[in-house]
Here is the input.
Amino acid sequence: MSERVEDIEIRLLLEALYQKYHYDFRAYAFASIKRRLRQARERLGFATISAMQAELLHDPAMLPQLLGYLTVQVSEMFRDPSYFRAIRDKVAPHLRTYPSLKVWIAGCSSGEELYSLVILFREEGLESRTLFYATDINQDALAKAAAGIYGLDRIQLFTENHRKAGGKSSLSDYYRAAYGGAALDKSLRQRVVFSDHSLVTDAAFAEMQLISCRNVLIYFDRDLQDRALGLFKDSLPRKGFLGLGSKESLRFSRHADSFTEFVRDEKIYQKRDT
Here is the structure.
């Protein structure tokens, strides 16, 4: 099959996915989507992308399988510890001036970043005044996040990351061995709202003092990046904070002038006062 025909198939599948199920991946970076759909086709045993599209249209059970390939599920607790250290040392002192806080983890995947922030806020005495909104387009990922169970083989890395991020306790204080893995303490979910939300099609839904959206925008094309950043801008009050991934930036966005670099090396921005 020619590359051109495969590209046509991919665009048709993305259109079918949007028309049938209202998941819009049409403005995602095409090279990334192409790589993931090729992987899905091979692993799910389809001869062509078109055959996979036909199955998607006629069998709703195909949807979660395909979303598992199209959405990024790779994360770890306190990933890039220096980012969380900067939240702890530089951002938290400003957040303490608010009587109540809302934090949005956009594209929360299976919840590792969410729980990292909840633990950090607990250690900094901010959890009791904070509501955390954890959103993703993948329902299976949200279910995993809500369960808060991770493989025991991952705990050593999580523990080391927590220490490097300035942890003020032992990570073992927050989990117990159960269900063949490490089950995070249920109290960590008491102030969390899990919600299906798409940065592609949905609107801003609350005013947040901190938004953390890391390693999501790199999968969007430029127009979709601008749309998402516009949502974040509209969701932040003056002097609210936005954290992005290490390979992401506001530099070429049309919303760049709405923010200042707060911690440049960690891609933490603050919304301008005016």
User: Anything to note?
Assistant: The first strand starts at residue 101 and ends at 106.
